[in-house]
Amino acid sequence: MAAEIHSRPQSSRPVLLSKIEGHQDAVTAALLIPKEDGVITASEDRTIRVWLKRDSGQYWPSIYHTMASPCSAMTYHHDSRRIFVGQDNGAVMEFHVSEDFNKMNFIRTYPAHQNRVSAIIFSLATEWVVSTGHDKCVSWMCTRTGDMLGRHLFPSWASCLQYDFDTQYAFVGDYSGQITLLKLEQDTCSVITTLKGHEGSIACLWWDPIQRLLFSGASDNSIIMWDIGGRKGRTLLLQGHHDRVQALCYLQLTRQLVSCSSDGGIAVWNMDVSREEAPQWLESDSCQKCEQPFFWNIKQMWDTKTLGLRQHHCRKCGQAVCGKCSSKRSSYPVMGFEFQVRMCDSCYDSIKDEDRTSLATFHEGKHNISHMSMDVARGLMVTCGTDRIVKIWDMTPVVGCSLATGFSPH
């Protein structure tokens, strides 16, 4: 693997290379075909399409296949040219694509779920197709026989999935805001641990098997990095989006995290810096600065003949403070706060101007983004969403690297 690193100015932006239009409903997944000028898309309009770039520079569909139910998830394995498509009716369908990407043959239907499929991963080593669905289940099925190998039930809809191919660990995010780590076996599974930190439903996950880092994005507009390999429970909070975080991709070579939100926001986070963990919020019956009682502290209110105050929290130290003692706002990127958040007066005074230097760049995709994937080898990104448009981006001006060989994060 060889890489050429280009130093780029901070003002550089993603370059829009192409727009693909033609779907009649929301595009739920779009995947770049490695080493080809092609894109595979799946849509709520019940079609799977393979788009190839023609001499004119435009993308035209070389394959157009209509399904029985709206398409809700998709994965593509390039070495074997197998496509797995999850549907709204709970089924997963497997196809094989011809070498010239002009023909697609149906292989098998997997009765994986009782409700909408939310994510799919294919493991060639085990010949498993692992999927999550709105029937609150993760299932894994044998692609040799089509048999169901195992299922595991969660308290709420299973919304996203990542998988470690070496250890057969599965990470499943759900609508309760919880992430479950499972060890999958041939016909059973065991729960290793659960991760809780988000205040909204988990929308996307990304697993980096080299550094053993898990990234999660949620409807609380935030991202959390979980240091699974460190075994110390270290977590980093990243807040810079103004809407639901829908997609993540960690670039291991440059230590950058790319994230997309449903309002079209694209962020590139510098993870190659020393970051601080956000503190746990402390609880108190009175302000931990001026000692004035909070409104539920009836005894102190009576004793001091004062009105109770509303409780707030300083984002830097985590102390419980009143509004008067936390009237100032500041960004603090080293702790993940890229926009201004509440600070107590002493923490605000301790922050220097250089501490406010951003550790991320933010860009506008100018369309709703519900799914994103990257071809890291070529520095390309594809985004799609409910506006039915697929956009292909050159990300090298932003991530500052292009790889000369076919590096893939999975």
TrEMBL record:
<feature type="repeat" description="WD">
    <location>
        <begin position="195"/>
        <end position="228"/>
    </location>
</feature>
<protein>
    <recommendedName>
        <fullName>WD repeat and FYVE domain-containing protein 1</fullName>
    </recommendedName>
</protein>
<dbReference type="InterPro" id="IPR015943">
    <property type="entry name" value="WD40/YVTN_repeat-like_dom_sf"/>
</dbReference>
<dbReference type="GO" id="GO:0008270">
    <property type="term" value="F:zinc ion binding"/>
</dbReference>
<dbReference type="InterPro" id="IPR036322">
    <property type="entry name" value="WD40_repeat_dom_sf"/>
</dbReference>
<dbReference type="InterPro" id="IPR020472">
    <property type="entry name" value="WD40_PAC1"/>
</dbReference>
<keyword id="KW-0677">Repeat</keyword>
<dbReference type="Pfam" id="PF01363">
    <property type="entry name" value="FYVE"/>
</dbReference>
<dbReference type="InterPro" id="IPR013083">
    <property type="entry name" value="Znf_RING/FYVE/PHD"/>
</dbReference>
<dbReference type="GO" id="GO:0005769">
    <property type="term" value="C:early endosome"/>
</dbReference>
<dbReference type="InterPro" id="IPR017455">
    <property type="entry name" value="Znf_FYVE-rel"/>
</dbReference>
<comment type="function">
    <text>Positively regulates TLR3- and TLR4-mediated signaling pathways by bridging the interaction between TLR3 or TLR4 and TICAM1. Promotes TLR3/4 ligand-induced activation of transcription factors IRF3 and NF-kappa-B, as well as the production of IFN-beta and inflammatory cytokines.</text>
</comment>
<dbReference type="InterPro" id="IPR042234">
    <property type="entry name" value="WDFY1/WDFY2"/>
</dbReference>
<feature type="domain" description="FYVE-type">
    <location>
        <begin position="281"/>
        <end position="352"/>
    </location>
</feature>
<feature type="repeat" description="WD">
    <location>
        <begin position="238"/>
        <end position="279"/>
    </location>
</feature>
<keyword id="KW-0853">WD repeat</keyword>
<keyword id="KW-0967">Endosome</keyword>
<keyword id="KW-0863">Zinc-finger</keyword>
<dbReference type="GO" id="GO:0034145">
    <property type="term" value="P:positive regulation of toll-like receptor 4 signaling pathway"/>
</dbReference>
<dbReference type="InterPro" id="IPR011011">
    <property type="entry name" value="Znf_FYVE_PHD"/>
</dbReference>
<keyword id="KW-0862">Zinc</keyword>
<keyword id="KW-0597">Phosphoprotein</keyword>
<feature type="repeat" description="WD">
    <location>
        <begin position="20"/>
        <end position="51"/>
    </location>
</feature>
<dbReference type="InterPro" id="IPR019775">
    <property type="entry name" value="WD40_repeat_CS"/>
</dbReference>
<dbReference type="Pfam" id="PF00400">
    <property type="entry name" value="WD40"/>
</dbReference>
<dbReference type="InterPro" id="IPR001680">
    <property type="entry name" value="WD40_rpt"/>
</dbReference>
<dbReference type="GO" id="GO:0034141">
    <property type="term" value="P:positive regulation of toll-like receptor 3 signaling pathway"/>
</dbReference>
<dbReference type="InterPro" id="IPR000306">
    <property type="entry name" value="Znf_FYVE"/>
</dbReference>
<keyword id="KW-0479">Metal-binding</keyword>
<dbReference type="InterPro" id="IPR042733">
    <property type="entry name" value="WDFY1_FYVE"/>
</dbReference>
